[in-house]
Fold:
Amino acid sequence: MKFFSLALLLLASCQDYNSNSGDKAKFGRVILDESDPNFRQAYFIIQDRCVSCHDHKHDKWADFKSNSEWIAEGLVVAGQPGGSEFIERIVNTGQVSSNMPPGGSPLPDDEYNHLVKWVTEIP
Amino acid sequence: MKVFLLLLTLFSLKAYSYSNFIGHGYTSCLNCHFNPFGGGPLNDYGRVVAATAIGSTVLVSRPVDEEKLAYMSGFLFRKPKQNWLRTQLNYRGFRVVRNPGSSENEEAKWINMQADARAVLKFGENDKFITVLNFGYAPLPTSVPQGTESSEWRSREHYVGYRFTPKFGLYAGLMDKVFGIKVIEHIAFSRVSPQVTQNDQTHGVTAHYLGESWELGAQGFVGNLTQDEDLRMKGGSFTFEKTTFGIHRLGASVTSSENEYLKLLAYSVHARLNLKEGSAILTELGQTNKKPENATDATTERFGLLQTYLRPWRGTYFLANIEYFNRDINQDDYTVRWGPGLQYFMGQRIELRFDLYNTRSFALKSSTRDSWMYLLQTHIWF
Structure:
């Protein structure tokens, strides 16, 4: 009985991370700020391209569900894609060797252009 | 002498530990592992194979006494005194260096990948009833949120198995999913895309059938029960392999599963080709269809693997690895990873390995810079 109890205790306290641990953040239904018509599409581009790293190890981008959260983090400057670190660090801009994603391919043009449009037109 | 003759008889059976050991003429995992689909603790025969056929004899005094090596293959170099319990300690760690030679971006660290204690309770003729426990240290994946408090201990396997006949067995508990070629590189696209990596064990029931020239596995699973229920992938897997031209194996696998956020369907075909004298080619090609709950359309990933293992002499394997990955078959961008490697079994219980990886992603009109990484790996078991 002691062995059984110990085994249960060990199993209950085990690490359980696997390929699906991020599914809720990545694929779960989200309620977004709908006041900016560009935001929803930008949000899902970021989910698709960025959150595999940026929702876990570094930060919590999946939780940024409105323009104000991106601005408050200093990643985006409303109306200024050239002054927004988020846009400048995308590998499509090609200016810094450590641009994102590291070692990854550039975003498709339509996705990159939408992100620039989103930041440019933030009300 | 009787024992050695018995071992020689056993060698006439076909078995392998790593998938590439088909190059030694062995086809099924079952003779070397308690798990019929490989991985986890070795059985007595698997330990003898590692000691007398795979490992180099460079550390052994001359003349080499293979019978003595076989006797020393047990836990802590001893012949087991009873028949019902087997234990094993297993450690795998590596130094990974990213962007080697770059003054700006070189990044090096040592990772203790796995440190397991394994125990097997076994009863009956030919170990027909087994209970396998495999528990140990596992580093937190890099995807874990910063600041998260989580255990660095993990139960990799806990299951019971019963072989109704030597050909047919049923297993229930936490096991690896049954799918494709189980290469040890857990970052391989052929393991990551269908979600069958080193942390993707699942609770379920697995049936294994070993035919004269074929082998199949069918598995129904309910996810890892230590995980939150909404994340558990529930579904099933099926894999089949057939011996062709007497020495090679062709196979196919399919797995379908879903949780509250994602539906996954993966399928692949694979080949394990025996080049003889220990050399082999492994290849796998497959696709994974992923449909997120919050999207109307599914995305289909495509993955490919080609590995060659050339064995110039006992204990040494020269590797070449080429991988392909397309994260969406409707998009043009894809990633290629390739590189050479060296696998050296210095002796029984000691595996050293070097792998060099070059990764590059290609879009329709552009590509990323070359990304380089190498691994120096140590694998020890007792």
Summary: Chain B touches chain A through 53 residues (CB under 8 Å).
